[in-house]
Structures are given as C-alpha cells and as structure tokens.
Amino acid sequence: MSKESYGICCCFLRSYKFGAAKAPQEIKELFTLYSHNGIMSVDHLYSFLKEVQGQGEITFQDVETILVEEIRKHRHLHPRHRKNLNLEAFFNYLYSDVNSPLASPSKVHHDMEAPVSHYFIYTGHNSYLTGNQLSSNCSDVPIIDALRRGVRVIELDMWPNSTKDNIDVLHGGTLTKPVELLTCLKAIKEHAFVTSEYPVILTLEDHLSPDLQAVVAKMVTEIFGDSLFTSKSESFTEFPSPESLKKQIIISTKPPKEYLVSKSDEVVQNDTQTGSNSLEDNGWGTEVDIKATFEDLYKRYALEDAESLDEDGLEDEDDNLKQNADPEYKNLIAIRARKRKGGVKDWFHDDPTSATRISLKETSLENAVISHRSDVIRFTRRNLLRIFPKAARVDSSNYNPLIGWMHGAQLVAFNMQSHGRPLWLMQGLFRANGGCGYVKKPDFLLQDSQDNEVFDLQKELPVKQTLKIKIFMGEGWHLDFKHTHFDQYSPPDFYVKVGIAGVPADSMMTKTKIIENDWIPTWNEEFKFPLTVPELALLRIEVHEYDMSEKDDFGGQTCLPISELRTGIRAVPLHDRKGDKYNSVKLLARFEFF
Ligand SMILES: [Ca+2]
Ligand SMILES: [Ca+2]
Ligand SMILES: [Ca+2]
C-alpha cells in the first residue's frame, strides 16, 4: 500500500491510502466455489465460464489457452500456481480485455443478405469538417477517422474552387477552409474497407456546373476503379444487399442547400445557444431523455394543426441532375434521392416500382413521426430515410438518434467529429454486429404484426426481459489521469450513472452512491431494468466525479447494445468524450437477464 499526498495551501500535506484493487466479496465467494485449496484448475475455470459466465460454446481447449495466457502474466507465482490460478490471477483475468461485455473478438453475425434498407447504417454528416459547422478546417483526417471507426456513409459537399477549374470540399456559405475533392477521394479509397468490408456510400452534395461534374466523374472512376458500384438499371424495386455489395463504393446524390441560414435567424440564434451550452457542459452533451422529448412533441402537436407541421421538411432536390447534368456523372449515381412534393403523407409514399431515398431534418422527422408514424415505418422497409442535424447545430452537436431508429430510418447522420451523449448512443448501436457499420433492423420494423398493425412504441407492451446489473467497482483512473486531474487536493469522488436508452417505456437512468476520495471505488450496487423492446435498447454507463461547488467532472462512459451483452461478470472498458477507449479505466460489473 502506498500513500498519495495532495498539497493544501502549500503549507501542509494531506495523505490518502492508495492500495491495489482487491476482489469484491462476491468474486471471492465464486473463487472459493470454483477452486480447491486456493487453486483454480483448468476444470474449475471451465465450469465457471460455462455456469457463471454463460459461455456455453467455450471448449476445454479455449480454457487451457486462457489459463496459459493468464499464468504467463503472473510469473512471480508460487510453483504450485504455475498450472492453476490463485485468487489474484483469477481476479486479474476477470478484469482483462478478453473478458469484455461484448464478444471479443467481435464478429459479423447478422444476416447480411437482406436489402440495404433492412439495416441501420453508420452515417456521417459533413464528414470533412474538423470542428464546428461555420469556421473549422475541412480535411481528409475526420473522413479517415470515421471510416476507421466503421462509419459507412460519408458526406462530401462539392463546390468549384476559386479558379473554377477544380473541385473543393467545404461547407457552403461558411468560412470553413476547403480541402480538395481529390484528397478526400484518395483517403476514402485507402481507408474504406480497413475496418469493415461492407459497402461505403458516398452522399455527394453538388454545386457544380456540368463541366465540373464531368471532372468529378473522371476522378471518381479513376480512383475507385472496379470498386465503384454501377447499376445498369435506372432504379431498383429493392436495394441490393450489403453482402452483394462488399468492398463496393456507392454514389448517392444528396440534394443541396441543406444549410439554410436565411431560414429564420432568430431560431438559429436561439438554438445555437442551447447547442453550444450543451457541448460545453463538461463534455457530457445534452441529456437524451426520449420520454421528455415525446411528451414535448405531443404537447406541441396538440397546439398546432397538423398542416403546419408539414412545412419545411425535405430538402429541395437538385434540378441540375435532371436537366444539364453531365451524362457520365449521372451514370455514377446508384442511389438517387427523390424530389420533395406535397405534404408529409406524400413524402412517405411507397412506390412499389422504385426504391428511393429521402432526406429529412431532425425536427421534420419529429413532426412526421407524430402525425404519420405508420407511413414512416412502412416507407423505411424498402426505401432509405436519411435524417440530418438542423442547421442551428453550428457547434456540430447531435440529436437523439433513437427517434429515427425506432421508426426505421437507416441513415441517421451525425457530426462524427463531435462528442456528447447522442454520439455515444450512435457509437453504442454500431458496436453490434462486429462493428461492421450495418446493424439489421428488428423484424417488427420490417413487417406488420400478426393483426396487420405497424409497430407502435406508444402502446403499452409487455416486459420481454429484465436486465439485472451489479456494479462492483472501478479501476484504472490513477493510470490514465494525473493525480490532480479530478480534485486538486484530494482523490476523486466517483459515482456511476447507469440506465437504458430505448423506446420511451424502457428509457431510464439511475445512479450509485458517491464514493468519496478513492481512486479505486467499490460500489457493490444492484439495479434492475425491465425491457419491453430489448432489440432497440442500449445500456448507458457514465462515471461522474462529484464536486460540491462545481459541475461533475467527466470520468468515462460507454454505451452497449443490449442484444449483444454477454452475461456474467465482465470488465467494462470506458471511453472518453469522443468515444476513444481509455487504456486502463474499467468497471467490473455482473449482468444477468431473467
Ligand atoms: Ca473534481
Ligand atoms: Ca475528492
Ligand atoms: Ca470531487
């Protein structure tokens, strides 16, 4: 045990005990149960993994490999422990990376042969921006970063350069500093399939003359070559499957003028304020309380008449394409967006002869799902629906992605360079299915129920399963942070917020007590979460560092798809605000379903 000192007013030191992590009581008891005379043999570990960890598929051989690996890490062990685990080695195994709550290594395990419209797809918005929406630099770096995280939809806004003879990528009408289209395309070519083999969709917003479109066509064809997906037919009745499109780049046009500053300056300013506050809020971002969001929406809906909600929804389709577009360029476009016509009901008209894509602003989606919920869900079975952040999010913040997912929207487009709770949900969903960027939608979104009804999340549904979580302890902050990072004069005071993001009935957050002045806090607290739609539920974990007179400090977060959660005692790795995994910070928790 060592002592850690904190200077107070430069005149005296206050010291705190700082010891190595010790196994919680429940782990000690399990060790006693699965060992003999303080020794856990390969047989014991095998039984433990099957019975407590629910790893029914594990082989004796696998267990031997684990054991050898763990013993290698403990060379200092007494000779009688060189073929077995003692309590310390067992506890270290439970805390190791291989014992994570999601299968590791993770594999693609969903059926990948269904049409692309049957999947949620990891989608970026303004993928070339390094920071805010108004003045940040454009670069290929955030594009590479997104592709390496598994993002499968990259958005590029193309403009003529200053000499009008080449193409720049930038956020039109802003002070963002451009990057050449060529640089972006080369980066995409090099990094598209490093993390996932499944198709990458490029949504191109084009503000180009036909002769510059011809330059784009030549550039795209030369750079992507055989990996460029081209379709012989003008349209599909069903989109092809991700499996059939492996290692292919698909071009989709995105209607321009998404960024409508002129719309209402007043609204923009108001929203901007809430937006920037939310991101500055120590990096947590806005709370993603979907119950409150829906209550709010229904209140608003009751006040306004349905017709006024129909306004200002879809982006205007680029007429250039139909009229003067360069024919080579036109041929590259495999997924075409549909022109906006009529009211909400018309937007979601499902034409059986041709699958299409439409693009909606987050607030228009909110209105559409209140007034035309069934139409939206039915539409998204065969057609693609893209949702994008409202223009007021100049700070590159994001919105609650669950509203889109619950209604079948495949392309919920996010500012990936950002941070905060909505982004953590996005990263959480796409940890599923081997992190390949495509997650199969649950069946109830793809077909009507037996009584021919469309899935209704407002309806009271029975509890399908209950998740029980016990949070034992946390460790690793002392390795990943400076000792004065959290509190200047004392060790940190951690507590855990834990809960569910999902349909409104399942969404809730709760928290542990605060453990004061301890780098290795032990909570030993248990929580139960009844789930009516576990298919859409994400487990949310946030570690807060409590401060009496200030806002909580950020101590780590993660978000995990419930459908892939492994039961048993697991070491839960935590991530920073952006979603990058910390080297050492982990929680030890037990998960059970009943
Ligand atoms: Ca603090
Ligand atoms: Ca403290
Ligand atoms: Ca504190």
TrEMBL record:
Keywords: Cell membrane, Hydrolase, Lipid degradation, Lipid metabolism, Membrane, Transducer. It comes from the Eukaryota. Residues 447-576 form the C2 domain. It catalyses: a 1,2-diacyl-sn-glycero-3-phospho-(1D-myo-inositol-4,5-bisphosphate) + H2O = 1D-myo-inositol 1,4,5-trisphosphate + a 1,2-diacyl-sn-glycerol + H(+). The keyword Cell membrane applies. Its main location: membrane. It is a peripheral membrane protein. Pfam families: C2 (PF00168), PI-PLC-X (PF00388), PI-PLC-Y (PF00387). GO terms for cellular component: plasma membrane. It is found in: Cell membrane. This is Phosphoinositide phospholipase C.
